[in-house]
Amino acid sequence: MENLIIEPYKPERDKAAIRALLCGNEPFDEMFQKSERMFSGGLFVARYNGVTAAFLSIDGFKRKAETTIFVSKEYRRRGIGTALIRKADQMLSQNEAVERSAGACLGGDRSSLQFLYKNGYYISYSSYIMEREGEPLPESHISVRPYEDDDYVICHNIWEIAFYQMHESVGILPSYYYPPNETERKRFAEDRNNRFVMLIDGEIVAVGIIDGCELSHVSVRPDLQLRGYGRAFVSFLVNEILRRGEKIVKLGVVQGNPAKKLYESLGFKEKSLNHWLTKYYRPDTRLSRPPHEDIS
Q1: pLDDT category of residue 40 using cuts at 50, 70 and 90
Q2: Quick one: which H or E segment has residue 208?
Q3: So what's the pLDDT on residue 1?
Q4: Does 296 score more than 60 pLDDT?
Q5: What single-letter DSSP state applies at residue 293?
Q6: How far is CA 185 from each of CA 179, 191, 217, 296, rounded to the nearest angstrom?
Q7: Contact yes or no for 132/268 (Cβ under 8 A)
Q8: Strands (DSSP E) found in 165-202
Q9: What is the pTM of this model?
């Protein structure tokens, strides 16, 4: 395609044009800003006849590389998206560290789903994006502290097993368990100020992560679920986000996960449904199930 040029992103040249391109499209604008902040080396810009028409974002060359492609409406069906996804495939498939690519598509966007299916992606699961705004939540007298490096193994096992069991219960396939590793441990340590643990009698019983206004990976030890710990911990985390100056709190919850009712009871409202799609480049190295379903 002679009139299409794909180049690495340069803020001084491309930022204003991409922000204008994404005006009125808040989800993609948030993705772009996060990518620029954290993974600028994985950003690429597509110009069609000299006009900025699309961008590609890859959040690093790791086992699961989250991939985002956005093409402006007036430039769709001209092969630009296909060219960008081919570029992503080329880079990801040639990097031995990458096992799979993952991305999201809004529910009801049949055109994008068709495009992704044609290029080898399939729906892994669907999740609701929920938001809450308003006053802080009432807090219980619970013990919560920031994450420490020595917490890594216990925290990893709590959320890996909790999410594995949740995926099994709602029928997500394939479901996997990912064993602890030093790369992840280092990443958690670097982000320790945004990670929290809840303690009961000095033992970690729940873990959660804050990223700006987003709340994620909230997990209660499986043998201690349905005792009110999740409500107390989520309330603390919501209030922590508000204490940091945010006005709206966002989270994602897998379709079919009973935790959605908890979030609704705390004032969260459903904003959209996202489909999460996956494409494999090589076999997945995660375990098909936990070696033993405990957290010791």
Answers
A1: confident
A2: strand 203-211
A3: 56
A4: no
A5: S
A6: 11, 10, 15, 17
A7: yes
A8: 195-200
A9: 0.87
Listed in sequence order, the residues at least 6 apart from 72 whose beta carbon sits closer than 8 Å to its beta carbon are 21, 53, 54
Which residues, listed in sequence order, are joined to residue 203 by a DSSP beta bridge? 200
For residue 2, name the pLDDT band (cuts at 50, 70, 90): low
Amino acid at 172: I
Q: What is the pLDDT of residues 221-267, one digit of tens each?
A: 999 999 999 999 999 999 999 999 999 999 999 999 999 999 999 99
| Long-range pairs of 205-209 with CB within 8 A, sequence gap ≥ 24 | 205/229, 206/158, 206/230, 206/233, 207/147, 207/155, 207/158, 207/159, 208/233, 208/234, 208/237
Identify the CA nearest to 103 among candidates 71, 58, 72: 58
Beta-carbon count within 10 A of 274 CB: 20
Backbone angles phi, psi at 63, to 5 degrees: -55, -50
Burial 9-24 (b: 16+ CB within 10 A, else e): beeeebbeebeebbee
Query: Are 28 and 21 spatial neighbours (Cβ–Cβ below 8 Å)?
Result: no
Q: Residue 62: which of 98, 33, 91, 96 has the closest Cα?
A: 98
Within 8 A by CB and 6+ apart from 54, the residues are 21, 45, 46, 48, 69, 70, 71, 72, 75, 80, 81, 84
Amino acid at 193: N
Question: Contact 273/128 with Cβ under 8 angstroms?
Answer: yes
